[in-house]
Amino acid sequence: MNNKAGSFLWNLRQFSTLVPTSRTMRLYPLGLCKTKIVHSNWNILNNFHNRMRSTDIFRYLFQDAFILKSDVGFQTRGISTVTALRIDRLLYAKRLFFDSKHSLVSVDKFNGELKKVNLHHEVSSEDVLTKETKPNRISSRKLSEECNSLSDVLDAFTKAPTFPSSNYFTAMWTIAKRLTDDQKRFEKRLMFSHPAFNQLCEHMMREAKIMQYKYLLFSLYSIVKLGIPQNTLLVQTLLRVTQERINEYDEICLSVLSSVLEVMEPCKNVHVLQMGFRILVDQQVWKIEDVFTLQVVMKCIGKDAPIALKRKLEMKALRELDRFSLLNSQRMFEVLAAMNHRSLILLNECSKVVLDNIHGCPSKIIINILQSCKDLQYYNLDLFNGLADYVAATFDVWKLKKVLFILILFENLGFRHVGLMDLFMKRIVEDPESLNMKNILSILHTYSSLNHVYKCQNKEQFLQVMASALTGYLHSVSSENLLDAVYSFCLMNYFPLAPFNQLLQKDVISELLTSDDMKKNVHKLHILDTCLKLDDTVCLKDIALSLPQLPRELPPSHPNAKVAEVLSSLLGGEGYFSKDVHLPHSYHIDFEIRMDTNRNQVLPFSDVDTASATDIQRVAVLCVSRSAYCLGSSHPRGFLAMKMRHLNAMGFHVILVNNWEMDKLEMEDAITFLKTKIYSVEALPVAAVNLQST
């Protein structure tokens, strides 16, 4: 080590003879080679050995190495002008030192080769190390405009590589975005096999620590989007350098870093970078000025981010609310869904802006808003009605696929817009040829779930068209898709023969009972079996299905105690009603009351055993939640409507009690409410007298 240090100091003294001792040399960072003006101050080099170890001197001097030509210097009023011939850092990951013959020795760390450059020889114009001017830097935009393929960019790099290498990756990604999927696959194969690709990757890794931070982030984003595997040395190196230099951020870097994290798959280095990003955002959130950057950061922060950080970002967004553009308001739904944070204030304010500017709103924006509302469980009836009204008003210009997707999202939200669904039914009846198997399943599920065909004018025509369209695909439909379609028809109380006959074949039933979703299939088959036995419109009543026993429908975990108390006060005690009654076909009802056929008088259960079944009216009281109805209405959804139909077929009079309404009522109001539900109109005065006597 001492020999190496001594040799280096000797070389340093020899090197110092190249520059006048009364002048100083200033080392410039990596850039284009040109004549530099340097002020006199040689004390830096004279004091190096006092302030640093020899290894530190070595690292400092040759961080950006320059070769000085002593014969081109001149003096003007204490200023020395020297031609600084920089050694390009792309030769670059090499160790440099001077030998005893004043030659610059380059040790290549990758292949171990030694290369010498004599400092005193006459330099030709082709010598890269001694060019006084380097090739002009070319921007990624210019590269993407001049090149037509990824290979063209790599060819340009081969001819005249320039700093930074990130421009080449950014240009390649810009070009790739213009290509079709097939063209992208072909171009990527050519890119990976191009002889200059590995060299470009090596240059990128060597330059990562010295290029501007934003270029580093641009290149990392482009590399990932180009499909370079994330577990490669290139990507992992860039990730580590990005972590190390994260404090060099500016607002643009925050936006780009957010996009980088959004497209990367989880791994250890990505996780570390994500944690660093959250700390950085937590510290700098109040300094973010651009609303778009704020939204990009919020979208990237992650669903598992600390709630304190989410609230801080929410407060920042609320402070910037007056600066929101229409696009910012539209994007806010997707941003909040991405961070899994339901801010009602932000959502309500952005909903107003969206509705005020609904005309001309693209279908993609509407779909993103509805999907985000579903993810956030945000139910804004005014927003849904406004969006549906706009789609219905401009229905003729919408494609069938787009409208269907919007209807599916409305169904997920439990929202039923009568006008829009009627228009869609009309188009299906007029153009049944536009239906494919996927559309058929989606339409049947949506309309059966929302119970829309109930009492519709063109119900029969619509159901016939759907059954005919399904029949055309029976030769290719899978067993599970066929079961889903038939189940939807059962909810709508419609039983087309061809689909039912194919589903009820033994081999199809056997396949459904041995599939991975056996529990779901068994549940649907039991409902089918119940419909075959109870519904009047079925023509296949003689068929008996042999199915595994279905577990009983579980009663609610918190039975409605208030309803039980009201019934006890209204009817005169618990002996006049029964709780948690299990019925055939795996049905369950919350309360059962037995009355005379005119529903004038309640009968105690002790007297019912001796009475004739024809003299008794059984009353089923169902306590239902909001989700059993379509949003903002009292229209029952598909399963509840079918259950009511089947209970009627079993001889019950069905009464629906809304849990959320009962919870709001005082005891006297609740008794009055149930009295009007249980007793017939003619019996209400009598019931009132009996209630007063009790």
TrEMBL record:
**Does Metal-binding appear among the keywords?**
no
State where the protein is found: Mitochondrion
Q: Which residues form the signal peptide?
A: none
Official protein name in the record: FAST kinase domains 2
> Can you list the GO cellular component terms from the UniProt entry?
mitochondrial nucleoid; ribonucleoprotein granule
Q: Which InterPro entries match?
A: FAST_2 (IPR013579), FAST_kinase (IPR050870), FAST_Leu-rich (IPR010622), RAP (IPR013584)
Question: Which residues are in the RAP domain?
Answer: 619-676
This chain's source organism reads: Macaca nemestrina (Pig-tailed macaque)
PANTHER family (UniProt xref): FAST KINASE DOMAIN-CONTAINING PROTEIN 2, MITOCHONDRIAL (PTHR21228:SF1), FAST LEU-RICH DOMAIN-CONTAINING (PTHR21228)
Keywords in alphabetical order, please: Mitochondrion
PROSITE patterns on file: RAP
The answer to whether UniProt assigns keyword Mitochondrion to this entry is yes
One example of the protein's molecular function in GO is: rRNA binding
Q: Name one GO biological process term.
A: mitochondrial translation
